[in-house]
C-alpha cells in the first residue's frame, strides 16, 4: 500500500496521526530528528512502521527524499492498511 505523509522534523516528540492538506488524505508524521542527511526521513519511516505494527524494513521510501511530503510503500494488506490509516487520520 502506498501512503503519502507530511513530515514535521524537529518536533518535541514523535507522533503519527492527523491530516494535512486540502483533501485531508496526507498523514502527519512528527519526528524529533532534524532534516539533516536523511535523519528525519529515516525516523519517519520508523515511526510509520511502528504505527502500523510493522518492522522498519517493511516501510520504504518511494519518493520525496528531500521533501517534507513523502510517498512510502507500506508492506501491509490493503484492507487492514486502510483501516489502520483511517484510524491514524482521525487523529
UniProtKB/TrEMBL annotation:
Domain of life: Bacteria
Stored SMART domains: DUF167
Gene3D superfamilies: YggU-like (3.30.1200.10)
Residues of the signal peptide: none
Pfam families from the UniProt entry: DUF167 (PF02594)
InterPro entries in the cross-refs: DUF167, YggU-like_sf
NCBIfam families: DUF167 family protein
Sequence similarity: Belongs to the UPF0235 family.
HAMAP family according to UniProt: UPF0235
Protein name as annotated: UPF0235 protein H9L10_06945
Provenance organism: Phycicoccus endophyticus
Phylogenetic lineage: Bacteria, Bacillati, Actinomycetota, Actinomycetes, Micrococcales
Amino acid at each position: 500500500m502506498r501512503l503519502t505523509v507530511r513530515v514535521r522534523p524537529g518536533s518535541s516528540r514523535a507522533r503519527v496521526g492527523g491530516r494535512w492538506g486540502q483533501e485531508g488524505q496526507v498523514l502527519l508524521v512528527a519526528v524529533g530528528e532534524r532534516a539533516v542527511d536523511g535523519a528525519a526521513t529515516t525516523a519517519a519511516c520508523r515511526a510509520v512502521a511502528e504505527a502500523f505494527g510493522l518492522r522498519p524494513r517493511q516501510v520504504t521510501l518511494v519518493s520525496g527524499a528531500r521533501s517534507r511530503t513523502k510517498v512510502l510503500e507500506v508492506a501491509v494488506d490493503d484492507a487492514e492498511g486502510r483501516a489502520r490509516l483511517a484510524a491514524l487520520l482521525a487523529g
